[in-house]
Inverse folding.
């Protein structure tokens, strides 16, 4: 199949490569709650957007420095109908962009074809159905690097030693699975070449692309921000997963202004941030204390209270799992804006950290 | 009809039985003076996969004795699950005594006599009686391995555990069918295609063993006298197989050391899995996976 790359001669709209796909995959996995993703390519990078129920919009922007190689040649002929998300027509004028839709889960499955795209997220439940005899080599267990409490228990640990040689081989190969991404233009598939190592197997994936659909536009900056909180992602993640187990359908976010000075007032004051989940079985509240250890910053002038569909807010869980810091903002119309910082791997400079953003409309309440 | 042996290589034997169990609920075992054949050839297997294995007696058994009216050949069918259960007792790490396989003539069972030592150092005897059906002498002749044409390609597969990972990952990207193709220049490709994607995973630099010396199957032995058709070394030959049967085959990655795949284009895929170290070839598990003929759109 060495001759398969001969069509590389023609000019590609997009041609990019990454030496280690793990961080890239983590970013995409944060959006994998929806299968259809819209990709928007311009000279500064790729933005990936998915939506849910016409109410939630999640975007990961993968900036150019994250790629080891990035080449974008806008289509020479008339500008294709720009599907830019924020309706920034004037921006599209000065900067060309190309948009297309792909099945996101297929894309992630392709990236992880060698099981080397990192297992920082929960494996899909269907994978757990796999037969696993007590003697199975651990190296076939691709999710084995997250060291979770595997059902194998101590027995699996004992067996691990016997297959040690091959495990080492597996871990060594996990370093730096590279990929090359190419898109030739409308009607062409997105081509993905993945190589595990120089002499290892290579995978060539062709993913069907679709013309970009009509995109939901949620502009957070349309109305002024009335609440702004920065907190560690783990605080939010743990609270959401706690509430998730109670099968709630509505999540209310309540923010309160800082308490007036004075010790007594501070003790009796309402919490700065409260998450209230309501479901058929009752309601649960989680309060965040007014402590800079928990809420790094918390700005709100008056009481803020908006409700969201719980299911939509938990779409952010996957991205929360790999993120360190979260900025939570709500504007006057009640639109929720979550910006999650996903730290780049150690080897790279921290300013390359990428963000995943979620924008969610509130529930209409009387 | 008498049969008695000690299982010397409990671990390997257990792993082989595990592979068998995943393949078929009941299997046939043909015992001869020099070899043990475990055969899974049920028609209802997923994708029509069959397994024929040859285990050399000296590599697996100690004090092997067999006696029967049919040239000292015994053919029996047995529940593979029960065999695995019996061997599981023997395969505990603390087991010291060899498992014993005896077959008493009067009532058709295989008795496993296992002695293990507990953590306290005490010895425990475990006995498993596995009921079996003895096949009549005339039936033995009827059992024949499938006949395959001369394969276009024979190629050494990459480590099966790695291959299994890839096939597992390809599962959501494939329908029920996966294509395996290879050539005589060490190239192997697995392809999966759906409406949404097309994926080819290729290995290069694999070796193409010379199978003419002592091929383990009749298909290869036949090749000796035949004129080989001229084939370009780069020409890819492929076969479409069911993903399920390929995965069933890959369950044997626990026993495999070397695996050779033979591709008979549009006919079948034959896989020879060598058990044990290279120096001491304990046996061969031969898998036959019939091709799915693509009718085309």
């Amino acid at each position: 199949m060495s001759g398969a790359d001969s069509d590389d001669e023609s000019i590609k709209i997009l041609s990019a490569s990454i030496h280690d796909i793990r961080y890239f995959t983590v970013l995409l996995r944060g959006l994998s709650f929806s299968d259809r993703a819209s990709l928007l390519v311009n000279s500064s990078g790729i933005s990936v957007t998915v939506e849910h129920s016409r109410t939630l919009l999640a975007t990961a922007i993968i900036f150019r420095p994250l790629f080891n190689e990035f080449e974008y040649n806008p289509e020479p002929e008339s500008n294709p109908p720009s599907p830019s998300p924020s309706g920034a027509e004037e921006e599209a004028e000065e900067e060309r962009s190309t948009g297309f839709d792909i099945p996101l889960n297929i894309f992630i499955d392709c990236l992880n074809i060698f099981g080397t795209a990192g297992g920082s997220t929960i494996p899909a439940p269907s994978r757990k159905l796999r037969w696993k005899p007590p003697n199975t080599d651990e190296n076939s267990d691709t999710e084995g690097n997250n060291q979770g409490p595997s059902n194998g228990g101590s027995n699996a640990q004992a067996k691990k030693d016997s297959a040690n040689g091959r495990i080492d081989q597996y871990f060594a190969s996990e370093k730096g699975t590279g990929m090359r991404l190419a898109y030739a233009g409308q009607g062409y598939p997105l081509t993905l070449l993945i190589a595990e190592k120089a002499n290892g197997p290579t995978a060539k994936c062709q993913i069907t692309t679709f013309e970009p659909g009509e995109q939901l536009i949620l502009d957070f900056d349309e109305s002024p921000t009335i609440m702004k909180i920065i907190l560690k992602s783990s605080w939010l993640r743990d609270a959401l997963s706690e509430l998730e187990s109670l099968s709630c359908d509505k999540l209310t976010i309540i923010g309160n202004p800082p308490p007036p000075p004075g010790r007594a007032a501070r003790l009796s004051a309402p919490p700065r941030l409260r998450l209230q989940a309501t479901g058929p079985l009752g309601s649960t509240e989680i309060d965040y204390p007014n402590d800079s250890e928990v809420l790094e910053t918390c700005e709100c002038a008056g009481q803020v209270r908006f409700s969201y569909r719980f299911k939509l807010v938990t779409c952010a869980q996957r991205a929360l799992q790999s993120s360190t810091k979260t900025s939570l903002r709500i504007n006057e119309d009640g639109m929720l804006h979550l910006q999650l910082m996903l730290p780049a791997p150690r080897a790279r400079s921290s300013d390359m950290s990428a963000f995943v953003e979620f924008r969610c409309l509130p529930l209409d309440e009387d | 009809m008498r049969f008695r042996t000690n299982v010397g290589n409990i671990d390997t034997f257990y792993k082989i039985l595990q592979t068998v169990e995943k393949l078929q609920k009941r299997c046939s075992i043909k015992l001869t003076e020099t070899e043990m054949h475990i055969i899974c050839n049920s028609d209802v297997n997923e994708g029509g996969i069959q397994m024929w294995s040859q285990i050399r007696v000296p590599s697996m058994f100690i004090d092997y004795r067999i006696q029967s009216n049919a040239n000292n050949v015994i053919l029996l069918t047995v529940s593979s699950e029960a065999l695995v259960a019996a061997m599981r007792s023997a395969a505990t790490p603390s087991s010291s005594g060899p498992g014993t396989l005896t077959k008493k003539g009067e009532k058709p069972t295989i008795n496993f006599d296992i002695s293990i030592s507990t953590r306290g150092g005490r010895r425990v005897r475990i006995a498993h009686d596995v009921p079996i059906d003895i096949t009549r002498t005339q039936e033995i002749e009827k059992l024949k391995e499938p006949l395959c044409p001369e394969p276009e390609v024979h190629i050494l597969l990459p480590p099966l555990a790695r291959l299994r990972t890839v096939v597992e990952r390809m599962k959501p990207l494939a329908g029920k069918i996966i294509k395996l193709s290879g050539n005589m220049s060490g190239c192997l490709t697995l392809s999966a295609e759906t409406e949404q994607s097309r994926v080819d995973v290729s290995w290069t630099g694999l070796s193409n063993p010379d199978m003419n010396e002592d091929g383990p199957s009749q298909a290869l032995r036949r090749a000796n006298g035949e004129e080989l058709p001229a084939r370009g070394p780069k020409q890819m030959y492929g076969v479409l197989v069911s993903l399920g049967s390929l995965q069933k085959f890959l369950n044997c990655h626990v026993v495999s050391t070397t695996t050779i795949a033979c591709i008979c284009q549009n006919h079948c895929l034959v896989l020879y899995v060598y058990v044990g170290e290279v120096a001491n070839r304990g046996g061969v598990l031969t898998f036959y996976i019939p091709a799915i003929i693509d009718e085309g759109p």
Q: What stands out?
A: Chain B has two domains: 2-140, 153-290. The CA atoms of residues 76 and 134 of chain B lie 4 Å apart.
